Each structure stands twice: as C-alpha cells, then as structure tokens.
Amino acid sequence: MHYGFPLWLVLTHFLNILFLTLLARSGVGILSAFPKLYLSDHCHPGREFIRFRKRTFSADSARPWSSLEEEESWSPVLALPGRKNLGLARHWHFMTIQFWILTGLAYVILLFADDQWRRLVPTDWAIVPDAFRVLATYLSGRLAPPQPGLPYNAAQQLAYFAVVFVLAPLQILTGAAMSPSVIGRFPRYPRLFGGRQVARSLHFLTLCALVAFVVVHTAMVVIHGIPREFAAIVLTSYGANHTRAVVVGAAGLLVIAGVNVLATAFSLRHRRRTQRLLGRMVDPFERVLSRASTSRQRFRATDVSSYFRVNGYPPPDERYRQLAADGFAEYRLEVGGLVEQPLRLSLDELRGLGWGTRTTKHNCIQGWSAIAEWGGVPLAAILEACRPLPEARHLVFLALDDKTVTENEGRHGYFYGTIPLFLALKPQSILALEMNGRPLPVEHGAPARVRTETQLGFKMVKWVHAIQIVDSYAAIGQGQGGWREDQQFYANAAGV
Ligand SMILES: Nc1nc2c(c(=O)[nH]1)N[C@H]1C(S)=C(S)[C@@H](COP(=O)(O)O)O[C@H]1N2
Ligand SMILES: [Mo]
Fold first, then answer.
1. What angle do CA 402, 286, 433 make, to 5 degrees?
2. Residues whose CB falls within 8 Å of the CB of residue 162, separated by 6 or more in sequence, listed in order
3. Which of 36, 59, 323, 463 is the least crowded, having the fewest Cβ atoms under 10 Å away?
4. What is the position in ligand 1's atom list of the atom closest to the CA of 308?
5. Number of C-alpha atoms within 13 angstroms, CB side, residue 44?
6. Longest alpha-carbon distance in the chain
7. How many Å apart are CA 175 and CA 196, to the nearest integer?
8. Is 77 helix (H, G, I), strand (E, B) or coil?
9. Domain range annotation of the chain
C-alpha cells in the first residue's frame, strides 16, 4: 500500500484551512458579544470561569443594565467582521459551517474509499505507549521515524485521528447543543455535555485545541524537512519541484488571507448587503429547523434561575409609568391587520382566551441563558379569536420602548419583532403575562411579552401593545422583520 498525497487530500486540506480560519474568526466575533464562559446554564453574573475583559457587571449594581452592554468591540484583525457585528459574525459562521461539513464529509468518504484511512485510524492499542515514546524522542531533540509501513509516527497518527474523528465531530455536536430549536425539541441533549453553557465552553476550548494542532502540525511539517514534506502536501509528491511547491503553497496561503481580508472589509462596509447575501444561504436552513422543531421543554420548579439577565431598557415615558402605576388596568392589547375580527383586549379579557404555564430555557443570541416559568395566553388562542385572513403570513409585535431614548448607540425607533404564523401556532408560543408565578416585572416586559421557545431571545418582544397580522413585513421599519434585524443586522430566522 502506498500512502502518498492524492490530489483530493491536498484540496480538502486547503479548503479545510480556509474554512477553519473563517469559522475561528467569526466564532471569535460571536464570542465578543458575550465574552465570558460559564459552566452553568444560569449564567449568574460573577460566576463565569473565564472572562475575556476587565469590566464586570453585577446583579446588584445600582443602575439598571442590559446584557447588550456586556458586548465588546473586538478588532477586525481577530474577529470576522469584528466591531460589535454579532449578526454578521453569525452569518459567516453558519454559512461557512455548511461548507466545512461538506468538505469534512468528502474527506472522510475519500479516506475510506481510497484505503487511506489506515494512515489515520489506529488498529492497535500499542499506539498509545508508542506515541509517548515518540514524544520523548522529540523532547530529547531528535526526530521520530514513522511507524513501519506508514507515513506517520505514532504521535502524529494519534493526533490526526483525534482531530478528524474526535475534535471535529465534537465541534459540530457542541455547536448544535447551543441551538434553541435543537435543545427546545431535545431538552436533554445538552446534558450530554453537562449543559448548554458547558457545550459553549467546550466549543471554544476545542477551537483552541484545533488552533494549537494547526500550529504544531505546521511546525512539524517544517521541522521534518521543508521543502520535502511541503512539496508532498502541496504538489502531491515527495519528488515534486521544491521551488514550485513553495510558490504554490505560498499562493494558497495568500488566497486564504485574501478571502479573510475581503470578507472582513466587505462585511464592515456593506452590512445590509452582507446580511442579505449570506442570509440567502443561512436563513432557509434556520427556517426549516424552526419549522421542524416544537419545544418539549418541561423544566422543574427547582431548575428556575435565581438571576435572569435583562436585555433592553423599559419604556421610560410618562404614559408607561402611569400604566404600570395603575397595575396596567388601562392597558389594552390591539390586534389588527389581516383579520376578520380586530380585537382590543384588557388583561382580564386576554386571560379569558386561555392560559398555559411552562418552565423553559431562554437563549439570548449573545450567548447567555436562564430558566424561568412563564404563564400566559397561547398565541394560537389569540389567533383563533381574531381569525386571520387566508393571506396572513406573519405576526408583528409592536412594543412600547423607543430605542432612540433608551439606548444611545446611534440606533433608533420603537422596538418591534415579527414571527411567522407557523411559530405562533406552536403549543409553547404564548403572550406571557406572568414570570415565575407573578405578574411580569417591568424589566422583563410588563404587562405582556412574547415567548416562543425554539427561538433566540430577541424574537420575544417585551412591552407588547399591539399585534398586527400581515402578509409581508417588507414595508415595516427597514423591512428586515424586526428592530434587531433592521438595526443590528441579525438574521430574521432565529433557530440556531
Ligand atoms: N421591546 C423589547 N423586547 C425585547 C428586547 C428589547 O430590547 N425591547 N430585547 C430582546 C432580547 S435581545 C432578549 S435576549 C430578550 C430578553 O428578555 P429579558 O429581558 O426578559 O431577559 O428580550 C427581547 N425582547
Ligand atoms: Mo438577546
């Protein structure tokens, strides 16, 4: 058996490095939105085990704060695209992941089709002590020879095996354990890793391991004899022309750097276009996942988080203060648009439509989670009462908080959000009026907020005063289907 470097191996290596750089940099961009790692899904402030910044926030800080303030602006050199562009970083991550998985599948299939798997997959436990012997050899300053009949020594083989068959799958599995649609449908799945936040931490630590592998691996190729090894991996043969190999290899690395620079510069300059272009590849996937998953979460009372972060400042105006002071006696929810029966409901009338409570995990797009019991009116019951017309497609939730006033980030307008009809009809989609058995606290959306348990938190509009049923949201706001979609370039579908 000859273990050379066939062309497919060279190509998949190249694509793998390209996609890994995009994944790592966009991953860092995502991390910057909540640059701390937890071991518990309650994400209690101060209990993170790794924090990538100095500033701290605490649950008992005197002034109100919002989790968006925990977002950091990291350099575009490190992050793709960097500078507080969580939505676009996610778009790059989820676009690239599809191609990375395809490359990985092609690689593994070819590996087995070609009998090349024997170079990676150990067939004897003796590989473990052998690998230690190899390490000892390296540490004593000598090069370790390959195993008989194989191109690699035991340590190399073990490392390559671990990367392909352990770290890469782990990265995919821990990634999935963060998706609100996946864990809404399979609430026990993240427990495989010790919870969603442990999965998130592992996802980051595995990235570190992969980066460490690439560094050591490249160093080894160099130590083992550039340009001979280099010629083999770039031009498929140990006998290839060395100069040509170095030129082709350098060109390949330049292409990878170039793609990264272009992707970053384009994303920073054309945020809406990046959101739209990448959205074409990412949104359908998220929409299918959201449609297919129905939340089956039923946490227990003892699972409820003692601390639940807030995102978004309450409406500061006098009208809202007055409403709250009167216990929302004057509050009316307006339901209109493409309906047979427009509604105008007091809180009591709303309650009369139906009631349900369930205890679920909230997953903010930034990365934190928390568990609470939510009680409220099924959105399906509201729809039944207003009877949407056949052309109805989306629910628009209009909120009372004017971001021009409550946030000072150069963004503006009243918060709003949309969800497709099919999400509203899921059994765990409710207009919540209670949290943990009490009327909603002001900061969590009093008197009424959306809960739809397979989606990210930003879809769950707080301080709702009206629901509009529409056939399209193109003419609302900036047309992206929500305030955060419009102003922060988040994806409209939010199942991952
Ligand atoms: N009206 C309004 N609703 C909103 C927001 C907001 O800023 N304004 N923030 C959203 C985001 S990003 C999240 S994560 C959740 C947070 O809900 P909580 O504050 O109850 O934790 O509310 C969502 N609903
Ligand atoms: Mo959020």
1. 45
2. none
3. 59
4. 21
5. 8
6. 84
7. 9
8. coil
9. 7-34+71-288, 295-488
**Residue 60 confidence (pLDDT) above 70:** no
Please measure the distance between the N-terminal and C-terminal CA atoms of the chain and give it in whole angstroms.
Answer: 44
Angle at 121 between CA 115 and CA 127, to 5 degrees: 135
What is the C-alpha separation between 388 and 53, in angstroms, rounded? 49
Closest ligand 1 atom to Cα of 406: 7
State whether CATH 3.90.420.10 applies to domain 295-488: yes
Is the pLDDT reported for residue 2 higher than 80?
no
Please enumerate in sequence order all residues whose Cβ is within 8 A of that of 446, keeping only pairs 6 or more positions apart, or say none: 324, 328, 439, 440, 463
What class is the 7-34+71-288 domain?
Answer: mainly alpha
User: How many whole angstroms separate alpha carbon 432 and alpha carbon 451?
Assistant: 6
Which residue, judged by its Cα, is nearest atom 8 of ligand 1? 312
* Selection from 331, 325, 334 nearest residue 347 by Cα: 331
Torsion sign across C-alpha atoms 437, 441, 447, 451: negative
Residues 204-246 have pLDDT tens digits of 999 999 999 988 888 887 777 666 777 777 877 777 788 888 8
Average pLDDT of 49-56? Answer: 82
User: Which stretches within 298-378 are classed as H helix?
Assistant: 318-325, 347-352
Return the ligand 1 atom nearest residue 463 CA. 1
Q: In the 8-state DSSP scheme, what is residue 388?
A: B
Report residues whose beta carbon is within 6 angstroms of any ligand 1 atom: 308-312, 364, 399, 401, 415, 444-445, 457-458, 460-463
Written as six digits, the tokens of 58 are: 């605490």
Phi first, then psi: give them for residue 449, nearest 5 degrees. Answer: -145, 155
